[in-house]
Design brief:
With about 120 residues, this protein is of the alpha/beta class. About 40% of the residues lie in helices and about 25% in strands. It has 5 helices and 6 strands. Strands 3-4-2-1-5-6 form a 6-stranded mixed β-sheet, with helices on both faces.
Length: about 120
Amino acid sequence: MATTLVVDAANVVGSRPDGWWKDRAGAARRLHERLLVADTAYDEVVLVLEGAAKAGARAGRDGHVRTVHAKGHGDDTIVEQARAAVERGGRVAVVTADRMLQARVQGVGAVALGPSWLLDQL
């Protein structure tokens, strides 16, 4: 059974006040780079970028990391990605601190994890 980790990049980056708001694309690029070398227990990591952060990493697959550029609201794209992975029959976790988003992804069968869990893995 495949395992998928869907990452709410805006939420993870925004969880630490390190000046990310001055360079959203740079913050997204750094998160992408860290995910590429991270040793997680997941077969695939889906990094969802929205807004200015999309300039930080191209859409598509890079090793075990697949970057998705949200066309609209990032939360909707995160739920779509989680739902698709659940429908494929895998175990799915979503990283976000957004309680409304946590409830939405749990509603499609995913588990919600907080940003600090992921940052500890990196």
